[in-house]
Specification:
The complex is a heterodimer of chains A (310) and B (266).
Chain A: E1 6-17, E2 20-31, E3 35-39, H1 46-53, E4 61-66, H2 71-79, E5 82-85, H3 97-107, H4 112-125, H5 141-152, E6 159-163, H6 171-186, E7 190-195, H7 198-204, E8 207-212, E9 215-220, H8 222-229, E10 233-238, H9 244-251, E11 257-260, E12 265-269, H10 272-281, E13 288-293, H11 296-304
Parallel strand pairs in A: 3-7, 3-8, 5-6, 6-7
Antiparallel strand pairs in A: 1-2, 1-4, 8-9, 10-12, 10-13, 11-12
Helix pairs in contact in A: 3-4, 5-6, 8-11
Chain B: H1 3-7, H2 10-22, H3 26-55, H4 66-87, H5 89-97, H6 100-105, H7 111-139, H8 148-171, H9 179-193, H10 209-213, H11 216-229, H12 235-264
Classes of the chains: A alpha/beta (310), B mainly alpha (266).
Chain lengths: 310, 266
């Protein structure tokens, strides 16, 4: 990994608003061709980091280079090679689907002739060919997001930045979007994704940083983070809101680690089914129980003591 | 992707996009552009003009027919109205409502180029409206052809100064809150009435004349009257009229650029 080309380099990156440090001295590298994730709850500093990478928001302190350039002074030069998919799509709702792509391409100085072909190609990629003459305002949420992604690709960017790409979408729309992003990955496009969805981070990211309160809590691939910070499996049991605390006392010592949440108890173990059998044998009868593999949610819980949706 | 090509002419690309968006409702732009002058010509030219000219023994005002006297003010007003429509609501849309400026700023276009693009579009719209107005005035024989270019110049100078100041003000707004209605009723309407539009400003009581002195419309009107038919004005005052409008534009843009940069970096 380390001999690959670094396209984004951050050292001690900091962004403060008056006394509040939104991003508080973070270090990371993003390599060409990888899908890099910023995972964390709302307010963790992901979007602020993304704005600095997008070269629109200037850092307060630290170092940041994008494609070897300095974003504070070379913003337009850097942005010429970035594709940005903002959290809110920021489409021109009055223009037709194809016009949104075409006019956006013109900002990059792309010729009309070249864009005509490119727009058709992008519409096909975004599965919007049939909607090319619809107003952007008339598209569903999922379609608008796909259009925003297609728009972010109009300049054939070296790095595509996606800020919370599937927030607010229904499960079907999310899966269609993930499929499109997978294809981009296969084509070698460098992806930088912020998300507070652990499944999204696991699905899409080769490597990620877990952020909380402006700081990086951990860094690695989803699998390595789970291996390092959690057990292989998790047993989730519910005894009822009032009884979880008292049940937890009786469960102590059964798993490798125990987390008591307001609505459920999590027991971390290498062998989930065996542990669940032990719980039942001990005379405790949970209302519901579930054995699942560990996820990034468990990593985050371990690192911060909170869930991602707290 | 050619980086140098991408970062050049960003302002023109912003203007191209905004003109393209404007073309979607071109009928309305033309209707407003032509409707206003025709209404004014009928009411002011045929109504008040006939009355004034009849009572001055055909001498008009300051030696020219009444319609020719008011033409510089009407044209400058048309230009100001044209640019006003482009620097107010679309700018709020760009920053607040649809936030389209943020999408543009994510490309190789800089915040300064976006501001310049807005100004180019506004002045283009102002020019278009003024040209239509001029066409109607010439068509009705209200002004001689020789006045057309001088009046176009004075009107567009007013448009430049006014649009830069209004863009600077609009760029600072976090939301509308009826601001545009207030500007329309308490700034633009009085400006139209107290700028020596329908009669020389000197006819007003001296305590009301400062309203005209601070009005870009008065400066544009006086400059237009001087350039179009040689209304006698002292040279230093001609310089003041020109400098006032030009400086409004320069100072306005000095405030526009940093505000655009600050808002787009949030």
């Amino acid at each position: 990994m380390d001999n690959r080309e670094v396209v984004i380099r951050a050292r001690g990156l900091k962004k403060t608003y008056k006394d509040f440090a939104a991003v508080d001295g973070v270090d990371f590298d993003v390599y060409r061709g990888e899908a890099f994730g910023l995972l964390g709850p709302n307010g963790a500093g992901k979007s602020t980091t993304m704005k600095m990478i997008s070269s629109v928001s200037q850092r307060t302190d630290g170092e940041l280079t994008i494609l070897g350039k300095e974003p504070n002074t070379q913003g337009p030069e850097i942005r010429a090679h970035l594709g940005v998919v903002p959290q809110k799509d920021l489409l021109d709702r009055e223009l037709k689907v194809w016009e949104n792509l075409f006019t956006y391409g013109r900002y990059f100085g792309l010729s009309r002739k070249w864009l005509k072909t490119k727009v058709d190609e992008l519409l096909e990629f975004a599965q919007l060919t049939e909607k090319r003459n619809s107003k952007a305002d008339d598209l569903s949420g999922g379609m608008q997001r796909r259009l925003a992604i297609a728009r972010g690709l109009v300049n054939e960017p070296e790095i595509l930045l996606l800020d919370e790409p599937t927030t607010g979408l229904d499960p079907q729309a999310r899966h269609i979007l993930w499929d499109r992003l997978f294809r981009l990955k296969e084509q070698g496009v460098t992806l930088v994704i912020t998300t507070h969805y652990m499944d999204e981070a696991e699905q899409l990211c080769d490597r990620l940083i877990v952020m909380d309160k402006g700081k990086i809590m951990a860094e690695g691939s989803p699998a390595s983070l789970i291996k390092e910070y959690s057990s292989k499996e998790v047993v989730e049991v519910r005894f009822g809101t009032d009884k979880n605390e008292s049940a937890a006392k009786q469960l102590e010592g059964l798993g490798d680690r125990i987390e008591v949440l307001p609505d459920r108890i999590l027991l971390y173990t290498e062998k989930g089914e065996e542990l669940l059998a032990k719980i039942v044998d001990s005379g405790l009868n949970p209302i519901t129980s579930l054995v699942r593999r560990s996820s990034l949610e468990d990593v985050f819980l371990r690192l911060t003591g909170r869930t991602l949706v707290d | 992707m050619d980086t140098q090509k991408a970062i050049r002419f960003g302002a023109l690309r912003v203007a191209e996009y905004r003109f393209y968006s404007m073309s979607k409702w071109m009928t309305a732009v033309i209707a407003f552009g032509l409707g206003n002058p025709i209404l004014y010509l009928v009411s002011v030219g045929l109504g008040i003009g006939a009355l004034v000219d009849a009572n001055t023994g055909g001498g008009g005002v300051l030696g020219v027919p009444y319609l020719q006297f008011v033409a510089p003010a009407l044209l400058a007003t048309a230009a100001i109205q044209g640019v006003m429509d482009e620097v107010t609501f679309p700018t709020m849309d760009g920053f607040v409502w649809d936030k389209l400026f943020f999408a543009i700023n994510a490309t190789s276009v800089s915040s300064r180029q976006i501001a310049d693009g807005v100004m180019i579009t506004a002045l283009g719209r102002g020019l278009f409206t003024t040209l239509m107005y001029l066409g109607v005035l010439l068509g009705f024989g209200a002004i001689p052809l020789s006045s057309a270019l001088p009046l176009l110049f004075s009107s567009m100078l007013a448009a430049w100064g006014w649009s830069a100041v209004m863009l600077a003000v609009t760029a600072r707004l976090e939301n509308d809150e009826g601001y545009f209605a207030i500007i329309g009723r308490f700034v633009v309407a009085p400006m139209f009435l107290f700028s020596g539009t329908f009669y020389p400003l000197e006819q007003m009581p001296i305590f009301l004349q400062p309203l005209g002195w601070i009005s870009p419309l008065w400066h544009a009107t006086q400059l237009g009257r001087f350039l179009a038919y040689g209304m006698p004005i002292e040279t230093w005052l001609v310089v003041v009229h020109f400098a006032y409008l030009a400086l409004m534009g320069v100072i306005g843009m000095r405030f526009v650029y940093p505000k655009f940069a600050e808002r787009l970096s949030r």
